[in-house]
Specification:
Blueprint: H1 3-18, E1 24-25, E2 30-33, E3 51-52, E4 55-56, E5 64-65, E6 72-91, E7 105-111, E8 118-124, E9 133-134, E10 136-152, E11 163-173, H2 178-202
Antiparallel strand pairs: 1-11, 2-6, 3-4, 4-9, 5-11, 6-10, 6-11, 7-8, 7-10
């Protein structure tokens, strides 16, 4: 292998090591709601209760509801900075009291500090009509954030209550793991050293 080829190879190794993280499900640290009805705890949205594979059973004990209102918000703390690729939302759906409680109009905002939010986009969620039911995946553009806020604007027809069943996020840490960072830096440092030797030899 020529010296120039070794430089290129070292640079590619370093770059690929720094970019090698694969998108995966993010373990949400906590979720808070503007209001909650009875025992429809917002923790149900992040604990996997009611899910079997990619389907939700529709069990009301594994859902969350706003308390007697049709609008409100949820704030998810991911526990660290992530490049968030997407969110998958299992709407309220059928089960106790009907699918009209399902969220229809939803706005999603993102924040790195939990104080300053930027709206990412507005979405219209579908209404599941049979049990069990699947989730709906929305792209979030690999946006870097720690906090995600759902602003619920309307539902599918219920007069008094609105809710969801489960929420997941996929992405990669915005802070490289130590092993990936070290490998990447070694590769880039090797490329720099080889280039320096090449320059010295040309003098």
């Amino acid at each position: 292998m020529s010296r120039s080829s070794r430089v290129i190879a070292a640079m590619l190794i370093g770059a690929s090591a720094l970019a090698s993280a694969q998108a995966a499900e993010i373990a949400v640290a906590s979720v808070t709601a503007s209001s909650t009805f009875y025992t429809y705890n917002p923790v149900n949205l992040i604990n996997g209760n009611g899910l079997s594979g990619d389907l939700h059973s529709g069990n009301w004990e594994a859902k969350w509801l706003l308390d007697g209102v049709n609008t409100g918000n949820l704030t998810f703390d991911l526990g660290g900075l992530y490049k968030i690729g997407s969110t998958t939302i299992w709407n309220y759906g059928p089960g106790c009291c009907g699918e009209g409680r399902s969220v229809q109009d939803l706005s999603i905002s993102l924040s790195t500090d939990g104080v300053n939010y930027s709206e990412f986009g507005a979405f219209v969620l579908s209404k599941p009509t049979t049990d069990p039911f699947g989730g709906e995946t929305l792209g979030l553009g690999d946006t870097t954030a720690r906090f995600v806020r759902f602003d619920i604007k309307s539902n599918h027809g219920e007069a008094d209550y609105t809710g969801l069943s489960e929420v997941k996020f996929d992405g990669v840490s915005a802070v490289p793991e130590a092993s990936s960072l070290a490998c990447g830096l070694i590769g880039l440092a090797t490329a720099a050293l080889l280039q320096r030797r090449r320059n010295n030899a040309a003098r």
